[in-house]
Amino acid sequence: xxxxxxxxxxxxxxxxxxxxxxxxxxxxxxxxxxxxxxxxxxxxxxxxxxxxxxxxxxxxxxxxxxxxxxxxxxxxxxxxxxxxxxxxxxxxxxxxxxxxxxxxxxxxxxxxxxxxxxxxxxxxxxxxxxxxxxxxxxxxxxxxxxxxxxxxxxxxxxxxxxxxxxxxxxxxxxxxxxxxxxxxxxxxxxxxxxxxxxxxxxxxxxxxxxxxxxxxxxxxxxxxxxxxxxxxxxxxxxxxxxxxxxxxxxxxxxxxxxxxxxxxxxxxxxxxxxxxxxxxxxxxxxxxxxxxxxxxxxxxxxxxxxxxxxxxxxxxxxxxxxxxxxxxxxxxxxxxxxxxxxxxxxxxxxxxxxxxxxxxxxxxxxxxxxxxxxxxxxxxxxxxxxxxxxxxxxxxxx
Length: 398
Description:
The protein is an alpha+beta fold. It is built from ten helices and five strands; from the N terminus they run H-H-H-H-H-H-H-H-E-H-E-E-H-E-E. The chain has helices spanning about 10-30, 50-60, 65-80, 90-105, 105-130, 140-220, 220-250, 270-275, 295-315, 350-365; strands at about 280-285, 320-325, 330-340, 365-375, 380-390. Strand 4 and strand 5 (about 380-390) form a beta hairpin. The longest helix has about 80 residues, at about 140-220.
């Protein structure tokens, strides 16, 4: 597929046309920059002024799309113009070509053109003075500096400002992108935290309701149904209270709605009593200090709560043991329950509880293990064990 040549910028076309018309007007009026009496005019025919003018105007149209080529052709046209009677517009358009080569050209061109212009200016300053031995020869270097060095330095300054503005814009875009990424990650983390809280607070009560309602529906015993309905009511009330606490956390403090205090390990006894009411045979062995960090206490409480919920839904008949011990700068949690087929009704599970426990432990740099283990004392020879180690000092790995 052939490559289409770049199209000149509209402004450059207008500038080239304006320069050409202006140069033709000066030529028609006979306003030349030199005369034959100056001694440097080689081509004295008045028509020789037009080829450099036309060539420079054509280069002016290509000043953005082909800056280096335009500068080289313009330099040749200016050289030809210097041996003719000359046209001021040709010189002015050449200065713009130097400026455009530095501003729009490749980085190498932008670096070299000012140096070359500077060297040419120095050469046309020193050589004429040394050759003519007159102060007026200094004007040659001044003119060359105005024609080549001044636009080159101007283009270099503008290019640096443009590059600095572009770099600042890119930094602003990157900062905005990073801020958006941080915001998205914060939203995802907050959603995950609230999902864990919602699951841990409500799953226990809903599991008990599901199991006891199944028992009430499957057994034709008024006493059993009454006991099951009593348990269902208790769990419904407690679950509603937990939901209100969660809503209080989500909402801003206002009027009669105040966020409740997060649960601590002091509430393990009440938690175990609730599990016993739901039908579990639970023993609690808690030996921990009174100065645990709040995140550790909350995580430990939720892990025990979720472990008891899983035991209520899936454990076989037998005893559930809950043990918490603090030693060597860490808090060890172990919850074991019978592993095997259960005789009574069960509640379905989604695996979100284990995921939530693992996330809580990972946030505190702890260790988490959950799975069946060999237990000769348990019915069937197996038990389900959840073992967690949480560092007491925040930020320390377990």
